[in-house]
Write a structure and sequence with these properties.
Number of helices: 5
Largest sheet: 6 strands, antiparallel
Bound molecules: heme C
Order of helices and strands: HEEHEEEEHHH
Shape: globular
Helix content: 25-40%
Strand content: 15-25%
Distance between the termini: 32 Å
Structural class: alpha+beta
Number of domains: 1
């Protein structure tokens, strides 16, 4: 039994030590930054690591959905990101790589990354939720693309964005403090995949 646990730990450590599978892209902790310095689309943020920000913004704003161009970074909260790799890099996940990030005033650390097997800090599998988006939405959930809803409100995701420690904001509004308190309550609810 001990051997199995040890082997699992070693395997996990090894998996985490692998550089993100770029599919042509060079993704590392520096690929991510203060979320509010990215481009705001509705209630989330986008970026593009290959210089095609306009293509990413166009996909995010496409009325009937679109395939995001390679290099696209999409984030709702500072600690989770989806990055679009080159076409064919990961057909099972429609070429999205999922990232779980640790952010602090010192910057970003990639905690986990990968494809169909990445689990967020609340035990939820990114891909399992996001794959439910209807095909035209390219795994992007928002509220009406076919994914099961999450209990994270706009006030909560907005508060997380505005208090991203990488952005250097020193004050927290009373509204954001209240939203963060409610989010904290939610995450204490046992066995609840939050965000
Ligand atoms: C329990 C299901 C669930 C899990 C687990 C989950 N997500 Fe999501 N995610 C959603 C839903 C639903 C939304 C849309 C929320 C909204 O707009 O109110 C969302 C939004 C997002 C967005 C903004 C774009 C979009 O799809 O609307 C990104 C980026 C994202 N999630 C990445 C991740 C990553 C990375 C992980 C894993 C580390 C993850 N998510 C885990 C359900 C989930």
């Amino acid at each position: 039994m001990k051997g199995i646990v040890w082997a699992a730990l070693v395997a996990a450590a090894w998996a985490n030590a692998q550089p993100p599978s770029a599919g042509g892209l060079n993704i590392d902790a520096d690929s991510f930054r203060c979320i509010t310095s990215m481009t705001h689309v509705r209630h989330f943020y986008v970026d593009n690591l290959e210089g095609d920000l306009q293509g990413t913004i166009a996909a995010a704003n496409a009325k009937n959905g679109a395939v995001y161009p390679p290099g696209s970074v999409v984030q709702l909260v500072p600690g989770e990101a989806m990055v679009k790799l080159d076409k064919g890099a990961s057909p099972a996940t429609h070429d999205w790589e999922y990232f779980e990030l640790d952010v602090s005033k010192d910057g970003t650390r990639i905690r986990r990354h990968g494809f169909a097997d990445v689990v967020n800090r609340f035990g939820g599998n990114c891909f399992a939720c996001h794959v439910a988006a209807r095909p035209e939405w390219d795994s992007i959930c928002e509220t009406d693309h076919g994914c099961a809803p999450i209990p994270v409100t706009r006030a909560m995701s907005g508060a997380l964005q505005r208090t991203d420690p990488r952005c250097g904001n020193t004050s927290v509004s009373p509204e954001d403090a209240e939203a963060l308190r409610q989010l904290d309550e939610l995450t204490k609810t046992p066995a609840r995949a939050v965000k």
